[in-house]
Amino acid sequence: MQLTGLTCGYEGRVALSDVTLTIMPGDFLGLLGPSGSGKTTLLRSILGVVDVYQGQVLVEGISPEKRRPRAGYVPQLETIDWSFPVTVQEAVMMGHTMSNPFLPWHRRSDVRVAAEIMDRLGIGHLAQRHISELSGGQQQRVFLARALVSSPRLLLLDEPTAGVDIKTRDDVMHLLHDLNHQGVAIVMTTHEINAVAAHLPSVVCLNTRVLAAGPPEEVFTPEILKLTYGADMPVIHHDGLTLVAERPHLRARNARRGPLHDPDTSGHAEDHRA
Amino acid sequence: MLEPFQYEFFVRGLLAATMAGGLCGLIGVYVVLRRMAYIGHGLSHAVFGGAVVSYVMSLNFFVGASIWGFLSALLITLTTRKRTIGADAAIGIITTASFALGIALISRYKTFTRSFDAALFGNILGVSTGDLVAIAFVTVAAIIVVIVGYKLFLFTAFDADVARVYGVPTAWVEAAFSLILAATIVVSMQVLGVTLIAAAIVIPPISARLLTDSFKRMILLSTGIGAFCGLGGIYISYFIDVSSGATVVLFSAALFVLALVYNSVKGKLPAAKARRPLGKASGLRDK
Fold it and tell me: HSE of A268 in the Cβ direction (CA atoms, 13 Å)?
């Protein structure tokens, strides 16, 4: 998948400028950036549902506007209408809508595939439950299952770990790593730098344009993070881990008090690399 | 008990109200789930303007009013895409202007003012065989559209934005829905009246929602409740001598209260449960 000099947005308003990015089969990529930086727009550009003003997107050599790519999309959980009367099975089967759009029932083979995927994700026994009756991890799996029923080669997830507890977040990330090992390319947005992005093979820092792309240990530098988030964010390397100290407010307050109150007087990244 | 059935006008009205009630209940599911109750209310007023214009221009009432309603629905959709204008404001402007046009034409040509009393408040006596055929035609068409487009309507109603990402032609689905909604309002006008149609579109699906968590069951229940309310409302209106539209809506409201009581007694409030804070809904609890 190739994005070349892509400038896109909605109704004439540019959300992303001059993005050039290549995603290969089997890649696992995290998109980072503040709210409004264009993360979701980048996902949607791959699906061909944003207005392209310049440049192009090619998925397997073809524009997604001409042929919908074999991609599964998982939206943010907070956009879901939990009062909508659908059971888990009905929600998952929505992923098969376009395989046979003008019949009110689903093909047996489609139902079988959905049942297999729900079992694989551990939600098979919840098929007849209403979607609001599930835990956060189970809810995330429902929409992951919906994305997977069409056997996509590319999975696009919008903040799959937002608002969930630590255990659920780890479960979701393990599941995504498993899918990635099975050959599914994954692109996900996240706000969690240390808990999620630092553990991905590669990340992209965005703020209406691509600021840096590569492995987290190369991309996470105070300079790039300052460009991305507009705040001082020291980076700590410890025992093979890359950690970003997210404390811009503390630093700003200490800066007003004077240098004696600032525990890190250097203002730069500390290096505790072993 | 069977006395009213000896009158042809009553049987005709009863059939019309039962079909119109079922039709409004069926279409109302999508209206309610897409949180478009205000569009149903607004469109019924817009269609009134279309009906008067059709009359003045000597056009076929059903065709003229349906086209007017459909165009109003499309205009509302287009206007709301302009992010500077809210959906409620767009509906307020377009539908009220259309309604006002109808009133203006009526006051200009006072000769036919009385003919539109039924359109405003519903009148069982005014149901002609032509009205009955029109209601039957739209009911059958709506059932076919809902069956054929079941999956497309379901996904679009659940999340139109994501449905589009999955390849669902949401613009066509919305246009088809607007057309059916406009036609539903036009053919139900004689029985229910434009001022009361919105209630007939909203109350049955809301009652059905209180009784089930499944989309499929909600459609069947809402259609059934709507048809039952049409039938029961007209039957009662004969004995208490109150306008048909008002009786149907009051009967629906009574059934809604019963559904609410049943739901509360069972301690099962799906809608209320689902509207809990996001943190609880999406991850801060584990089962």
Answer: 3
pLDDT score of B271 more than 80: no
In whole angstroms, what is the distance from residue B82 CA to residue B72 CA?
A: 16
Instruction: Quote the CATH superfamily of domain B3-266.
Output: ABC transporter involved in vitamin B12 uptake, BtuC (1.10.3470.10)
Rounded Cα distance between B39 and B44, Å, is: 8
Q: Can you point out the beta strands (E) in B75-194? A: none
Q: Chain B within 8 Å of A80 (Cβ-Cβ)?
A: yes
Same-domain pairing of A132 and A147: yes
Give residue limits of the domains in chain B: 3-266
**Alpha-carbon gap: B187 to the closest alpha carbon of chain A (Å):** 26
- Nearest to A235, CA basis, from A247, A243, A226: A243
- CB-nearest partner of A78 from B81, B162, B282: B282
Are A83 and A146 part of one and the same domain? yes
Nearest CA in chain A to B212: A85
CATH number at residue A198: 3.40.50.300
pLDDT band at A259 (very low <50, low <70, confident <90, very high): very low
Which residue of chain B comes nearest to A70, CA vs CA? B166
Residue predicted with more confidence, B227 or A217: B227
Q: Where are the alpha helices (DSSP H) in A79-181?
A: 88-93, 108-120, 136-148, 166-181
ipTM of the modeled complex: 0.83
pLDDT higher than 50, residue B172: yes
Mean per-residue pLDDT, A204-212: 94
Residue B278 phi/psi, 5-degree rounding, is -55, -40
Torsion angle of the four alpha carbons B214, B216, B218, B223, in this order, in degrees rounded to the nearest 10 = -170
The number of distinct structural domains making up chain A is: 3
Q: Are residues A213 and A241 in the same domain?
A: no
B147 and chain A: CB distance < 8 Å anywhere?
A: yes
Q: Could you tell me what percent of chain A has a pLDDT over 90?
A: 57
Q: What are phi and psi of A239, to 5 degrees?
A: 50, 45
Helix H or strand E segment including B56: helix B37-56
**pLDDT, tens digit, for every residue of B71-80?**
888 887 777 6
Q: Of B208, B174, B250, whose CA–CA distance to B26 is shortest? A: B208
Pair (A18, A128) in one structural domain: no
pLDDT at B163: 93
Shared domain for A131 and A165, answered yes or no, is no
Q: For the ranges A22-36, A110-124, B11-25, B73-87, which has the lowest average pLDDT?
A: B73-87
Minimal CA separation from B58 to chain A, in Å:
38
pLDDT-above-70 percentage for chain A: 89
